[in-house]
Design a protein that fits this description.
heterodimer, A: alpha+beta, seven-stranded antiparallel beta sheet, two-stranded parallel sheet, 5 helices, B: mainly alpha, two-stranded antiparallel sheet, 2% strand
Chain lengths: 217, 216
């Protein structure tokens, strides 16, 4: 064996120039594992603060999506009827009843969530049972594409579509300028998926809650 | 590489001016243009990037011996993405209003090429101390650039700075400055200013050298 190859072998083993595939897989797995542990612990540590903030924002948004409302009450569906319940319970869906100054029911604020273009979109919309109309919509949480998908809450024209919207037979998103029916929403140009996601999330909320509200409200 | 004091000082100061990530290297343009419509947003984005860059450089430099070079980029990305997720959740818990304003741009710090660039070209080849100093300099330089852009755009486009009203009620804001075109406009002008200053300094140095030659 020549001196040259001997030196080459030595430097190769010292620098790890040709590590085995096993070592590569192990390195990446270890990095992924550690990363996962860190992310989960940070998630667990920040979760209480984040949920508390979101709950507060949700309560404030009730007054944005329902007109002339001065007080709200959290309502849950139990045993075929709506009952007032303030304490939150994991996995239990709730709506908010909105009341005017005289204590009369104005409408309901319904939270609903579903997949958007990138991540879950959480929104709240106001529903008037008397006229069966949606009178306001606010996106609470979303990660849609900046400049395109985020128009679902930044574009005043799109948000305005939900100020007077019939829920029967169901809400539909149509191409801008083609729809004028009471249950049709003009989708945002360049953000059709996000627009349709908002409409789908509202329809899912309607399917879950409208029969209950009409029966138990 | 010697770690003498002037060397470390140079590594720090180069990120601020000569190799400024924005004005000299023109890196990290996506967050640069997108979130600098106000000084507060610029500060928050600069702070988040600061944390991610310094923490990643520290970790990459400490682990460089154990990372096989075939999987180094993937490992760097895992490290960077972990820190980005940490800062994402922390901002959401501590500063929810700013988190909502920055929205999707916080997760997008992962793909800020300035950060990966520092790992590949500096942190993976130098000692922990130098890597951290380099990251500090680059991060402060990036923060400075973001703040410069954000301040110009907020002052002209909104008449305020960090939320403070500057000109009173008679000021007519240049709305275009807080919109995307204002970002390009301001960045172009700042790049121009930066190159002009750099050129002037170079000419000055040349003239000094000439004078020395004539003098001897």
């Amino acid at each position: 064996m020549s001196t040259d190859s001997g030196l080459g072998l030595q430097s190769a083993s010292r620098q790890g120039r040709e590590p085995t595939s096993l070592r590569l897989i192990l390195t990446l797995s270890l990095a992924g594992l550690l990363s996962g542990i860190i992310i989960v612990s940070v998630y667990e540590a920040t979760l209480p603060t984040i949920t508390a903030y979101q709950a507060r924002m949700l309560r404030e948004a009730v007054f944005q999506v329902l007109p002339r409302v001065t007080q709200s009450q959290r309502l849950v569906w139990r045993d075929g009827t709506l009952i007032a319940k303030d304490a939150e319970e994991k996995g239990e869906a709730a709506v908010f009843g909105g009341y005017d100054a005289g204590g009369n029911l104005v409408g309901y604020a319904i939270p609903s969530a579903g997949p958007g273009f990138q991540d879950t979109i959480t929104l709240l919309y106001g529903y008037l049972p008397g006229s069966r109309k949606i009178v306001g919509m606010e996106v609470l949480d979303s990660r849609e594409t900046p400049g395109l998908g985020d128009k679902i809450y930044k574009d005043a024209a799109f948000v305005g579509e939900f100020k007077d919207l019939a829920v029967d037979p169901e809400v539909r998103a149509v191409k801008r300028g083609t729809g004028s029916a009471a249950n049709e929403v003009d989708a945002i140009t360049g953000a059709t998926i996000s627009s349709k996601a908002v409409v789908r999330i509202i329809n899912e909320g309607n399917a879950r809650w409208l029969p209950r509200l009409d029966a138990g409200g | 590489m010697p770690t003498s004091k002037p060397d470390a000082y140079q590594e720090f100061i180069k990120g601020l001016w000569r190799d400024n990530p924005v004005f000299a290297q023109v890196l990290g343009m996506c967050p640069m243009l997108a979130v600098t419509n106000s000084a507060v947003n610029a500060l928050a984005m600069g702070g988040a990037t600061f944390f991610v860059l310094v923490a990643s450089s520290f970790l990459v430099s400490s682990l460089k011996r154990w990372i096989p070079k075939q999987v180094r980029i993937s490992t760097y990305v895992i490290i960077i993405a972990t820190f980005v997720t940490v800062i994402d959740y922390s901002l959401q818990a501590l500063l929810p209003a700013i988190h909502k304003e920055l929205g999707a741009f916080i997760p997008l710090i992962v793909v800020n090429c300035m950060i990966l660039g520092r790992q590949e070209s500096f942190a993976s080849r130098h000692s922990i101390g130098l890597a951290v100093i380099d990251a500090l300099g680059m991060a402060v330089g990036f923060l400075f650039a973001l703040l410069a852009l954000g301040s110009v755009r907020e002052i002209l486009g909104n008449g305020t700075w960090l939320g403070l009203d500057l000109f009173g009620p008679n000021f007519e804001p240049w709305v275009i400055m807080v919109l995307p075109p204002g970002g390009f406009l301001t960045l172009g002008l700042l790049l121009l200013l930066f190159s002009w200053l750099a050129e002037r300094r170079q000419k000055l140095a040349e003239r000094l050298a000439e004078m020395e030659v004539e003098g001897t």
